[in-house]
Write a structure and sequence with these properties.
The protein is mainly alpha-helical. The chain has a single domain, classed as Growth Hormone, Chain: A, CATH 1.20.1250.20. Helix content is 81%, strand content 0%. The protein is built from 17 helices and no strands.
Length: 426
């Protein structure tokens, strides 16, 4: 790999030279902007209507649990059907669903937020495995690492930009315009993807192969692949660890911090947006810098994941002091650095070793594990915040227990058996 492959010119060359990726990336930019509008607006709305940490935790439980429930189907769909079509359909569905959030006006309407969030999140459960599985279809082998790093950095940049803008819109003119903007971005993303040149690389299936039993068998084959490739499973489970020990903890805690400790704007929406901005900056910069050092080398990528856990632990500890909003923002930045390293470099390792035939199912299982564990963590965190521990105690607890996954991952790095090549699919 030459120097430009990991520098800014490599990213620009990919965007300019690969038309299919350019359209995929443009759609991602637009839809992610609206995503963060929606998250901040819905969290601020629930915080305002309920004043309850448990209710806030419930929102994130729904956001995480719905994709988990559809994951067995989502993985098979990503490995059976045209992946671009899956992205377009889910974009259109989410566009109409998020528009219905404007109907929530009173505390007794809170259940509708949970119901709509469930449908929206379930659609995302189909979207992300298909998106990840499609990426190597439209890029050359030497472009995969660059494309993964760029798309992950884009996610983080849009987290920062979308959160700032979403927090400002929700804080100044109210949460309901944010929902409308989110709906429009999903529909625009679908229109862009319609123009993306794409020829599915999946082998056509006979009609008999498309039965429900055949689909179940395909899903079980994907699980069998992971069971037979323990190293691949150890990488795939890192997002579950991230969801349980880091994201589930922090996403509920930051809403409480913004709404109760440093409220700016309606429901603390502006301060919440600032916290998301710092997390976005951290998660955007760290994978690019980490990959520049790792150069897609197996051992280095794994070590950077361990560093991610350490950074998140320190971020939690800094936030737990609640000295001031600027101090919390520094902690959020570190948390973002850590989460970005774990998420992006874990994905890069999977892209390097998982064959196309099972890629959708592997990413679907990975996302399912992440959402399940993040849901459990979010619900638990919401209840803990309502106890004597409070948000500060919860973050301190999270900082300490991160020692466990860090130590276990380091042991696997030095003692585990590697899956270094793309093995034949199950």
């Amino acid at each position: 790999m030459n120097k430009t492959d990991t520098g800014s010119s490599g990213y620009l060359q990919l965007i300019r030279g690969n038309r299919a990726f350019r359209y995929l990336w443009a759609g991602q930019v637009i839809s992610l902007t609206g995503d963060w509008f929606n998250l901040i607006a819905s969290a601020a709305l629930i915080a305002t209507l309920t004043q309850s940490g448990t209710a806030i935790g419930g929102l994130f439980v729904v956001r995480m649990l719905a994709p988990f429930l559809v994951s067995p189907i989502a993985g098979v769909v990503a490995d059976r059907y045209n992946r671009r079509a899956v992205l377009i359909i889910t974009d259109v569905l989410r566009g109409f669903v998020v528009l219905a959030f404007v109907l929530v006006r009173e505390p007794q309407h809170v259940w509708l937020i949970y119901a709509l969030t469930a449908v929206q999140a379930a659609s995302q459960g189909f979207y992300f495995p298909a998106w990840n599985a499609l990426l190597p279809d439209i890029t050359k082998p030497q472009e995969v690492g660059i494309a993964n790093a760029l798309s992950s950095a884009t996610w983080s940049v849009m987290l920062a930009f979308g959160s700032a803008l979403g927090g400002l819109v929700a804080g100044v003119v109210g949460v309901y315009p944010a929902f409308v903007i989110d709906a429009v971005t999903f529909l625009l993303s679908a229109l862009i993807l319609l123009r993306m040149p794409y020829q599915s690389t999946l082998k056509s299936k006979r009609d008999s192969d498309r039965s429900m039993m055949a689909g179940i068998q395909q899903y079980l084959d994907g699980l069998r692949y992971l069971r037979q490739h323990i190293d691949t499973f150890s990488i795939a489970i890192q997002k579950a660890v991230l969801g349980f020990f880091i994201i589930g903890f922090f996403q509920v805690a930051q809403v409480t911090i913004a709404e109760q400790h440093f409220p700016i704007g309606e429901g603390g929406s502006i301060s919440m947006g600032l916290i998301y901005v710092m997390a976005g900056i951290g998660s955007g910069l760290s994978p690019i810098l980490g990959r520049n050092w790792a150069r897609d080398r197996d051992r280095r990528l794994r070590l950077m994941i361990a560093l991610g856990y350490v950074c998140s632990s320190f971020g939690f500890l800094i936030c737990s002091t609640l000295i001031s909003l600027p101090v919390v923002l520094i902690g959020a930045l570190l948390r973002g650095v850590g989460g970005g390293l774990v998420w992006v470099l874990g994905t890069q390792l999977l892209l390097q070793i998982v064959p196309n035939e099972v890629r959708g199912r592997v990413f679907s299982t990975e996302f399912a594990l992440y959402t399940l564990f993040a849901a459990v963590s979010s619900g638990t965190t919401g209840r803990l915040i309502d106890t004597s521990l409070g948000v500060s105690g919860v973050l301190q607890l999270g900082s300490v227990i991160l020692v466990v996954p860090t130590a276990l991952w380091l042991l696997w790095i030095f003692l585990g058996k590697r899956d270094l090549v793309k093995a034949k699919a199950a």
